[in-house]
Specification:
The chain is of the alpha+beta class. The chain has 14 helices and 15 strands. A hairpin with an 8-residue loop joins strand 3 and strand 4.
Amino acid sequence: MTIRRTPADFIVDEIAAPEFEGSLRAAPSADALVAVYRLDKSQLTTPHAVSLLAAELRVRQNDISYAGLKDKHAQTSQMVGVKARTLADGVLLPAEIRGGKWSARRIGWTVAPIDASAIAGNRFCIVVRGVSRAAAAEMDRRASLLATAGDDGGALLIVNYFGAQRFGSARHGEGWIARSLIDGKFEHALRLAIATPSRKDTGVTRTFTRMLAARWSEAAGAGRDGWAALARDLPRCPEKKAIERLAFMASRREAPIDERGYREAFAALPYFLQQLYVEAYQSYLWNELARRMAARIAAGQSLLKTDDEFGQMLFPPAAARAAAPGLFDLHLPLPAPETQPVEPWGGDLLAILEREGLALDRLKIPGLRRPFFGEAMRPLFITAAAFSLGDPEPDDLAAPRSSSMKRQVRFDLPRGAYATVVLRALGQ
């Protein structure tokens, strides 16, 4: 089964929080100078679409706020806030504006930039293709087992795993960047971050990572000029600052760059990337803990299993809630040094860390104040609300005379939950 064959196969609409939606004003005022637009896009990342919007509106990109990143390979709709400098500037902002693969429609005005509190969740409409008859029957079986009781218009109870999108820094199969950072292996961490090509790299990123991978060892062993020569040849991108930092340090020393030097180069990377590497590893540890809790909850009952590149996903049937209601309401931490391991999950977390060769007090990066491991609580289960599973029908993109089918899946998820995890629960 496959998804995202076309952008129209994966539609995401951001759902505004009722409190935020109710607070929107019809016109700007001295204390409400943020214009809220509904930004629709296709085949564009959110930052790219925002940069195009900023150019059309002739505002700084930093004056546009949004609550989250939406998939490039999808049709998406989300709210963005455009801050006007003055009331006169606000009056001049257009009600609608359109570009090649995007459009924006103003829906009101608010007093502050948009952040996560403005969002209740996301609504998904997904076409799953390449569905066999057996797979269609399995989707129906799983949906019936995950369905919650009650008249709620259709809902599934799903373990709230982090999806594969969260783990971009480990897709190359070479290990977790944050794990190397914890051990003080800064050169290895830096190579994983910017010099390990991925088959999904495109454009400048593809050129950058492949050139670094091919010439890293040569540059490291070439004395003062190695890193400088490499820095001159690399295409310009934000990650290049790390190599330029290595070139600067190499020009001022005779000895090869040591781990302290690579630590300084790593710190030159964009900070949001540094923190992303840490959060990816935290999310992996969280998923491991959630998997153990799911297995415990489903003891004695059928457990739905789906293989995933970052570990098997386990989903207890909704009926298990009656036997373990407290476990379904758990919130688990993204582990950090300050985490207090309490039961029923504390022993499992310590066992997971021990298997990783770690303990809670080692979740820090030597010599750097940031990025850091910060604790955040995440619900173990979420509800995929307004769930519907369309009947199988012929796949119009399949080869001629193919028996392959497609199905449409619809559901709403709370903020921070992953649609791909719902599809995993259904066997995709």
